[in-house]
Backbone:
């Protein structure tokens, strides 16, 4: 998943999701899912055309968040002169000051990004360099890696449990087979024990 951070004149562009969509009525940063063969920038450029009818060139990743099993990446998209956004794939759009973003309802996956913007955690375009190279971004990337590692660990544990179950089943089958073999030989042993002694041995 990719989303755009678009700023112009100290304001951020956000859109409102249609009521019929997932998280309907909530505000979001424009974007969506990648399609086959697309990289992050290609996908985001397409989504901006489809949602807002604008032609922008996505830049660097400035924030990463985990949304369930998905990774959501926010890319800075410099504003291009002459663009006129229209609410094509969203209910409406709005230019909002950073400090006013928390006053709008966003999906849970956007919460950390909204707080960072409102607190000035990301420098505005053209000031202080790319946030993606800063300490905060490194921390976010580490959190993403740790979350992935936890999911892989849970998968490994489930695999180990399945392997242990198979091993236990094999041991049980061997024990049953051994028990069955013992049960088959039991009458022969009993008969040998109760049979009269050989006459030649008596003599």
Residues:
């Amino acid at each position: 998943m990719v989303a755009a951070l678009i700023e112009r004149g100290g304001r951020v562009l956000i859109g409102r999701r249609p009521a019929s969509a997932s998280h309907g009525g909530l505000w979001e940063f424009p974007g969506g899912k990648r399609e086959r063969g697309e990289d992050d920038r290609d996908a985001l450029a397409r989504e901006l055309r489809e949602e807002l009818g604008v032609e922008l060139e996505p830049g660097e990743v400035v924030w990463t968040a985990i949304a369930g099993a998905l990774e959501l990446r926010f890319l800075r998209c410099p504003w291009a002169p002459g663009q006129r956004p229209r609410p094509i794939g969203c209910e409406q759009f709005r230019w909002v000051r950073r400090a006013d973003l928390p006053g709008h309802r966003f999906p849970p996956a956007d919460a950390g990004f909204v707080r960072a913007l409102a607190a000035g955690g990301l420098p505005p375009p053209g000031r202080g360099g790319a946030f993606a190279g800063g300490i905060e971004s490194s921390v976010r990337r580490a959190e993403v890696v740790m979350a992935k590692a936890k999911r892989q660990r849970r998968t490994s544990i489930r695999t180990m449990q399945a392997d242990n179950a198979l091993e236990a089943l094999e041991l049980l089958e061997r024990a049953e087979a051994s028990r069955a073999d013992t049960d088959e030989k039991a009458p022969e042993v009993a008969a040998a024990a109760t049979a009269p002694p050989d006459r030649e041995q008596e003599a």
